[in-house]
Amino acid sequence: MYKKLFTLLLLVLPCHLFAQKNLLKDFPEGFGPKEVGKRLAYRFVDRKHMLHAGKWISYPETFNWTGALKYAAITKDKTLLSLLEKRFEKLTSEEKQLLPIMNHVDLNMFGSLPLELYQITKDKRYFELGMPYADTQWAVPENATPTQKEWASKGFSWQTRLWIDDMYMITIVQTQAYKVTGDRKYLDRAAKEMVLYLDELQRPNGLFYHAPDVPFYWGRGNGWMAAGMTELLRLLPKNSEERPRILKGYETMMKSLKQYQSPTGMWNQLIDEPECWAETSGSAMFTYAMISGVKHGWLNKAEYAPVARKAWLALVPYINDKGDVAEVCVGTNKKNDKQYYYDRPRNVGDSHGQSPYLWCTVALLEK
So which residues are the signal peptide here (predicted)? Predict the structure, then answer.
């Protein structure tokens, strides 16, 4: 009897209700996260360094490296892990001068990379290299400016500057420190910082200005916020004082992004400008945030899984035969000039774009 009823339900109910759960699992050939991730992760191994100010390993390279490590770990690719670790060994020996100093939000984030290696290998050397980058983000230096000291006196990082980029740079190294120590101070102070940025920069439509004095919804900048909130929501316990505010900010942003997704599946360099060009790094960051939201239950699966799938299917064709992502906005400072964002150069293979694609592959592969 029950078997007949179930058969009847299969005939009567719309097929998409049963297919819904597979929207983030079943992809056409060439679009699967494992095959896409392999192309991108192995591509990193032989890339030239992308330096900050021509001196130190940059944040785009750091996140590209970490993304490749996460991919190697989730796929249990020992060959890739060995290649990535060997490259890091070179960085800490003959290329030691390229290790970033610890005096800026875009440099301290480097600590997230050795701390990722520590989580995978349990090699204490990586822990000892990474932790000072997290700790000095809250340790006020003697030459700090009055503004920096004021931020610190309120319990925030002295590196606070209210640029949306910061909410990944600060969040990622502090959450990594929490993962390897279990000390809630790292998680709590990152969450407090995030609430500050939400209150200062998020607009009623859910999107974020690049900075208080730059009223434009820049794609990748908003992507840093989306990814930063995602990293925190993965870790913050339900009894966290800051979790409801961050979840609300995340949900409001995702609702707005759903509305601004173009018919092609992408998001534009300026999100709310339909005539602006489609940009890959920000689009991939939004996709990562949505995939994670669906899988962790922060977002309604029926509503957001199709959005994330559409985005992923749109993103993959931007990868060329070398494993390089096209249409990546170059590094971008804030500027109160809309045309400035329209005119930003676009690179191929820029690590700003490679890393969020890898985040997407890992999120899709997660159970």
Answer: 1-19
pLDDT tens string 266-324: 999 999 999 999 999 999 999 999 999 999 999 999 999 999 999 999 999 999 999 99
Q: CB of 290 within 8 A of CB of 303?
A: no
Are 151 and 196 in contact by the 8 Å Cβ rule? The answer is no
Domain-located, residue 244? yes
> Residue 121 corresponds to which amino acid?
T
How far apart are the C-alpha atoms of 60 and 70, rounded to whole Å?
15
Tell me, rounded to whole angstroms, the distance of Cα 63 from its chain centroid: 8
Indicate which CATH number applies to the domain containing 170.
1.50.10.10
Residue 279 lies in a domain: yes
The model carries a pTM of: 0.94
Q: How far apart are the C-alpha atoms of 34 and 310, rounded to whole Å?
A: 18
Measured CA to CA, the distance from residue 313 to residue 266 in angstroms comes to 9
Question: Is 14 among the domain residues?
Answer: no
Pairing of strands 346-347, 328-329: antiparallel
How many CB atoms within 10 Å of residue 291?
28
Using 70 as the pLDDT threshold, list the residues of the chain that sit under it: 1-21
H helix or E strand, kind and range, residue 52: strand 51-52
Q: How many domains does the chain have?
A: 1
β-pairing, 56-57 vs 346-347, is unpaired
**Helix pair 243-260, 280-296: axis angle to 10 deg:** 120
Query: Pick from 114, 163, 162, 149: which is nearest to 134 by CA?
Result: 114
Q: Which amino acid is at 82?
A: S
What is the span of the domain harbouring residue 355?
A: 30-134+158-365
Q: Report d(CA 95, CA 69) in Å as an integer.
A: 20
DSSP assignment, residue 47? P
Residue in 160, 224, 234 with CA at minimum distance from that of residue 192: 160
